[in-house]
Write a structure and sequence with these properties.
Layout (H helix, E strand, L loop, with lengths): L3 H5 L4 H7 L11 E2 L6 E9 L6 H9 L5 E5 L11 H9 L4 E8 L2 H7 L3 E6 L11 E2 L3 E3 L2 E3 L4 E5 L2 E5 L4 H22 L3 H14 L2
Parallel strand pairs: 2-3, 3-4, 4-5
Antiparallel strand pairs: 1-5, 2-6, 2-9, 7-8, 9-10
Helix pairs in contact: 2-6, 4-5
């Protein structure tokens, strides 16, 4: 059987969010660098001072292949904490992706790597290297609590965190929600009459 990480890969984050009742999604500004990028994997957490990427380098050294590096960069966007060189390191080390609550740079170079990066923004200025940061500690990223070993899923709509131990429960709820969505679409999409039937039903229920 496929791993739970693989079973979540490609499932829409909107469906997962519905299964989690709207909780655990990161701030909407944290988006993939490329709209087609998707991630699903175990979290390796990194906490850094604003604009300092030493902790990210430590995280890359300590993370296992298949992990997703999730970085609490304090939302600071005036210095980039990763560029194409750092992202190349992550790719060569076998990580599945990076999520950074902060800024990156070297956009075109990162595009050419075909490696999924989710971040708050981009900027020109480089990071500093003064503090070692912390790895594998509870963090806040994009306004959401993230713990080492949580499962994280991302796509064009954003990033969502699934607490460790809740994966199977959330997966089944997500699949059930997607099944209901398909049934609704088959019933109400395809003609003007079907669309009106749905709207009349919903609006009638709201009266």
């Amino acid at each position: 059987m496929s791993s739970i990480e693989d079973r979540f890969y490609g499932l829409p984050t909107t469906g997962i969010s519905d299964a989690l009742k709207g909780f655990n999604h990161m701030n909407s500004v944290i988006k993939p660098l490329k709209e087609s990028d998707k991630i699903s994997g175990r979290v390796f957490t990194v906490k850094i001072p604003a604009g300092d990427n030493t902790g990210i380098l430590r995280g890359l050294r300590e993370a296992d292949p298949g992990d997703i590096l999730v970085v609490d960069g304090k939302g600071y966007t005036e210095r980039a904490v990763a560029g194409d060189f750092v992202i190349s390191l992550a790719q060569n080390l076998g990580l599945r992706g990076m999520v950074i609550d902060g800024a990156i740079r070297d956009i075109q170079g990162i595009h050419s790597l075909d490696f999924p990066v989710f971040c708050r923004s981009s900027t020109l200025a480089a990071s500093v290297k003064a503090e070692k940061g912390e790895c594998q500690v509870p963090i806040s990223c994009g306004g959401v609590s993230v713990n080492p070993g949580d499962l994280i899923v991302g796509d064009a709509d954003g990033v969502i965190v699934i607490p460790n131990g809740k994966e199977e429960e959330v997966l089944q709820a997500t699949l059930e929600k997607l099944k209901k969505d398909r049934t609704r679409e088959e019933k109400y999409i395809g003609s003007r009459e079907k669309a009106l039937q749905y709207l009349d039903q919903v609006l009638g229920d709201s009266k």
